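[step 3/7] inverse_fold.run input=structure_tokens len=84
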């Protein structure tokens, strides 16, 4: 098994890197006053949008999830700056 970051062969079981990026949904985002007065119109627009797009595309707009095996050295040197 090779490290997904540096490509070197991983000794032992390696380390699991999980990365998730998601829209920060809050309960307060959905309020009647935020939706507007014509709720039926907004719901119809949303249904039409969903019908036109594939499920995977919609999911990727909301959340992206990555999982990879990395070696000890990459684990040790991992920081938010190393994701640039
Ligand atoms: Zn590595």
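[step 3/7] decode complete -> sequence:
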């Amino acid at each position: 098994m090779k490290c997904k970051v540096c490509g070197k062969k991983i000794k032992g079981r390696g380390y699991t890197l999980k990365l998730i990026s998601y829209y920060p949904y809050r309960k307060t985002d959905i309020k009647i006053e935020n939706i507007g007065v014509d709720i039926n119109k907004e719901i119809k627009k949303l249904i039409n949008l969903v019908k036109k797009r594939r499920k995977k595309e919609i999911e990727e707009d909301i959340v992206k999830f990555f999982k990879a095996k990395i070696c000890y050295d990459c684990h040790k040197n991992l920081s938010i700056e190393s994701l640039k």
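[step 4/7] annotate
Residues 15-83 form one domain.
The pocket of zinc ion is lined by residues 3, 5-6, 8, 70-71, 73-74 (CB under 6 Å).
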